[in-house]
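=== RUN LOG ===
request id: a7f3
mode: sequence -> structure
chains: 1
length: 161
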Amino acid sequence: MKRYLPMLGLVVLAIAFLVWRSLPEQVIKRRCKALIELLDQMDAGASVFDYNRLDGLLADRIEFRIDLLEEELVSADREQALSAYRWMSDEVKRSSFSIAEFRDIEFEGDEARVRMEVESVVEMPDIRSLDGRHACEFLWQRDGKGDWRLEGLSWSESPGS
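=== RESULT ===
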């Protein structure tokens, strides 16, 4: 009987890990990290794999609120957002994105609002720099299949940066 205790302990730990990993907060954090990783890899050019990964993260319609653009609020469908990502991947000479800190995650029904600080360095011709620390807010919506999709993104300079 004693020889089965370590095996039983491992099974209990594995189940606990799977339960923790499937908590909505952990799923949302992984999706945010996946999105930031795609931005981080833009200078390598967009591969079909990156394009498909991004497609799996986006809702049918996304609202972008970016204070660095002339037109601060932009609404785009998924295809437009994917095309913009491909264009940026072709234009970016150097990019580096990382999550500096998760501020908070709020859930309200099938919506999740994530506030975080992101460090970025982006070198693009003819476009204002995205270098520095930025306050980001992602709005995720759970679809009919239970997948979380990005529905809104707010990007602004972080206070004090």
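=== NOTES ===
The two ends are 60 Å apart (CA to CA).
The longest strand covers residues 94-108.
=== END ===
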